[in-house]
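Hi support team,

I'm opening this ticket because the web form for multi-chain structure prediction keeps timing out on my end. I have pasted the exact lines I submitted so you can reproduce it. The total is 669 residues across two entries, so I didn't expect it to be a heavy job. Is there a limit I'm missing, or should I split the entries? Thanks in advance, R.K.
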Amino acid sequence: MRASAAGKTLPKCPTGIKGLDDVTFGGLPAGRPSLLCGAAGCGKTLFAMTFLVNGATLYGEPGVFMSFEERSHDLIENVASLGYDVEMLVADGRIAIDHVRVESAEIEESGDYDLEALFVRLGYAIDRIGAKRVVLDTIEALFSGFTDQAVLRAELRRLFGWLKDKGVTAIITGERGEGQLTRYGIEEYVSDCVILLDNRVLDQVTTRRLRVVKYRGSAHGTNEYPFLIDDQGISVMPITSAGLEHQTSSDVVPTGVASLDAMFGIGGFYRGSSVLISGLAGTGKSTFSASFADAVCKRGEKCLYFAFEESPDQIVRNMRSAGIDLQQHRDSGLLKFEAARPSLYGLEMHLARMNRDIEDFDPNAVVVDPISAFRGVQSEIHATLLRLADICKGRGITGIFTSLSLAADHVTESDRGVSSLMDSWISLTDVEASGERNRVLYVLKSRGMKHSNQMREYLLTDHGIHLIEPYVGAHGVLTGSARLAQEAAERDSAIERTQASARRHRDLSRKRATIERQIAEMHAMLQAEEEEAAMVREQEQVHEGVLTEDRVAMAAKRGAAA
Amino acid sequence: MTETQIADDPAIPGHYNLRLYVAGQTPKSLTAIANLKGICEDHLAGRYTIEVVDLLKNPQLAEGDQILAVPTLVRRLPPPIKRVIGNLSDTERVLVGLDIRPREDGV
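Hello R.K., no limit was hit. The queue was backed up. Here is the completed structure from your submission:
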């Protein structure tokens, strides 16, 4: 069926395990046995069972699980934790479980034997339900049951050949051995496809990884891929998407804080961009994130909030005090919280989990609060965030990542590491001056747009975040009471200036009045002098007249006498 | 099910109820049947029952009785259940495996 559809390429049998089918480009080789090996506790059995359950439920292929270790009902109970109802599948005849008990001590060997009965059992189970898939878990248990290893090896070789002839796709699990893939070297017989599972502990945190060691006749991803086992089954995280071919968008997504929007040339972030909000403890990183999430949901878009430090309820409560009601968005299903302690799993595991959550919820925006909570080797954190940013970008999701800085005005190691991945970077810091701390933000970078170079003080109020008009003086940005003092001082000097000018004005008019008075006085004096001069001239004229009269009179007197 | 009744009363104490599982009439199966009969006649004359089960005809019995290798001889009675695998060519080991002769060092 699939063989014809796939044309000339090797027919593949999909496992239905998220990611694994991507890594193997379609699944396991159909009609052939594959080897799944790993140390104890790697999830071999769960992996194999998932293969069968998916086969039965998704692809209509019944399967036989031959267990050499766990008893049937233990097995059913164990996988029930992944949400698999194997009991029902068994009852429906879609899965058959055969527990093969291997006990070495009770069996005496006398002369030649072979394992034909195993073939009979398996063949009977396959034929009974028409199985297309078979799991042998863990067939190497046979080695402890039989002393004649030569017979056993010959029989195993025959078994794998027989499985191929049957045309069933089989998974053979094997315990990891020293210096070889499996303890008894059965990779020698099953060599079409070998998958290695690993469960590594680093800094007390375990990470499950998967690697396709070989895959005859097919290309496959060669890296180690982290995988995840939880109540939703198994998912493998392929890192094949580490290219830089994301579709870019010119849409603008508001930041959720109006005055912050104004600091960006385009009025917000670009859709699908990655934004880093770094800052010291208590600078309101979460509040900025919540404002953004609130704005996203208010537009009717979906937001996924990964919380690594607070529980969802705590975030909702805390943000309510800042006037941001996130509960309404949770109720309407637009906002989804995924909270986990960073130490719960390794980085890869977190990444795999986040990837799955993003795929399931398909949000428009993602908040990761904070990325600095991840502990581990710097290069690994960087790789993890790179892939997370890539996942978001690849899906056109706007990502807000918060990061806790440790010292003021000091960009931490991790910030430096991720900064190159981020399109915009808002730095929150606090300025310590005149006995108080005040919060200040600035846009450190924002790719592809003009952005304000100003440092802005902001307040976390009952009604969200408020950016304040900046006071920039000779000594830098003034904040808090220094800003208030500056405001007061400027007010004072303004008053002083108006008072001074009024005074000058008054002085001037007074002066003018004085001078006018003086002019009037001088006028009066002049007039008085003029009047006096006129009087003198009059008197002189009178006097002259009198003299003339006298002279005439005298001459007359003298003439009369002569 | 091929049943070869050799002794008559299976209820008496000390009676051996034996079942031999084989897969088809292979030389190995035939040798095992012949060997078993010989051993029983020599050591358990008159107090044994042999049942030969061909798994090719009754495959469902393989799972129920936890049979892996063939031929497998199972001592069903007296309890506890004992198993011997192989064509039963080593008589000593068959006797030890069926608890007819106590296990000895160096055997």
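A quick check on our side: Residues 76 and 85 of chain A are 8 Å apart (CA to CA). Let us know if the file doesn't open in your viewer.
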